[in-house]
Amino acid sequence: MDSECSGACTIKDMILGIGTDIVEVKRFAVWKNYSETQLLRVFSKDELQDCLTGDTLNLQKMASRFAAKEAFYKALSQALVNLGFTKNTFLFLFCCQHVKVAKTKWGVPVLKADWGVFETKVGEKLPNIKTELSISHEESYAVAFVILIG
Questions:
Q1: How many CB atoms lie within 10 A of CB 89?
Q2: pLDDT for 41-88, tens place per residue?
Q3: What is 15-149's CATH superfamily?
Q4: Nearest to 3 by CA among 78, 92, 75
Q5: Which residues of 62-72 are buried (b: 16+ CB within 10 A; e: fewer)?
Q6: Residue 138: left (phi > 0), alpha (psi -120 to 50), or beta?
Q7: Quick one: which of 33, 46, 51, 89 has the most CB atoms within 10 Å?
């Protein structure tokens, strides 16, 4: 999985899709009671580990990762329409299972997408797509913004 642009984009690259999402953090309070199997439908093991503070799930981190996945889904949907790849569709949960929020060694969040799986699902060869991610959270809300560049 690789997909971040991180300063390597050139002037000839174009924006294929943009997505944003905002979620209320308290919405995820009930998720503390979900089994690992249920949580793994949306988050990777690495993401769940990153959301732990001791033995407790950090709801702000969880909400921001969920918002990032939703923003990615919106950006990818727009990109596929812009590329004319509309024959096959996929659900949000499929997207959740094949994209994850990771951190660089400096702790900067990045999105990692399994582009091969998305190509198989849409039935088309995708161009080299790079992602840019910005996430933020505070006590009540988490927000994410994703740009797909190709």
A1: 10
A2: 999 999 999 998 888 899 999 999 999 999 999 999 999 999 999 999
A3: 4'-phosphopantetheinyl transferase domain (3.90.470.20)
A4: 75
A5: bbbbbbbbbbb
A6: beta
A7: 51
